[in-house]
């Protein structure tokens, strides 16, 4: 709600959106802070931060590199490991891992590898988002949403169907994953089943404590089937039911 108020104050028309893999109590505060260690294996944190300015290309952006730096400061303040053991940064600044399609998929595979209950994962993408025609009928808008890597002209974009199938669904029960997508057309980029868009009406209801939960996407049963068969060697077996995951996602509307 506060983010929506800030956007409106500065004259922006975008509407923030919150999505989740399972019902959440909107009256309860959500924290990024990892669970405290318990008996056995201590929980770990991992984060992937992606910032693409598309340097030297038409439609270049200005602030995405800064977004990565700010997100690193944020997650470190919440107890995430920002050493090389717990953090991958993909930035087109000439000195970091290039945010190509192959490198992004490799980073996403690293993010979820060997994740166990109690672990906390964080994914941030700042760059361009896009849309492509929906070929399997699981989108009401008729379009799938995409993340646009730096080499999209040669390699293509990353589809929401593939993110759900390869990143979200394989997560074991008890793993928490928080995602922030700062790009156009990102409203349903992870195809999660519960969602809310903070427009003026819902914003007032949320601020007044009148909304208890998110609305379920009634077409979700058809989601989660891969479309892109060239995913840089990513091959994850043992997909578990999404209802058992705990993945949060905050973004702009799917038509913005």
What does this structure look like?
With 256 residues, the chain is an alpha/beta fold. Helix content is 21%, strand content 22%. It contains six helices and eleven strands. It has helices spanning 2-9, 64-77, 101-112, 152-155, 160-168, 200-207; strands at residues 16-20, 45-51, 87-91, 120-126, 129-133, 143-147, 158-159, 176-182, 194-197, 215-216, 246-252. The two termini are 18 Å apart.
Provide the gyration radius in Å.
17 Å
Mean pLDDT: 78
The succession of helices and strands, N to C, reads HEEHEHEEEHEHEEHEE
The unreliable regions are: 227-256
Portion in strands? 15-25%
Q: Give the helix/strand class.
A: alpha/beta
Number of strands: 11
**SS summary, helix count:** 6
* Strand order across the largest sheet: 3-2-4-8-11-1-9-10
End-to-end Cα distance: 18 Å
Largest sheet: 8 strands, mixed
Helix coverage percent: 10-25%
Judging from the principal axes of the Cα atoms, what is the shape? globular
Structure summarized in a few sentences:
With 256 residues, the chain is α/β, with parallel strands linked by helices.
Which secondary structure elements does this structure contain, and how are they paired or packed?
Blueprint: H1 2-9, E1 16-20, E2 45-51, H2 64-77, E3 87-91, H3 101-112, E4 120-126, E5 129-133, E6 143-147, H4 152-155, E7 158-159, H5 160-168, E8 176-182, E9 194-197, H6 200-207, E10 215-216, E11 246-252
Parallel strand pairs: 2-3, 2-4, 4-8, 8-11
Antiparallel strand pairs: 1-9, 1-11, 5-6, 6-7, 9-10
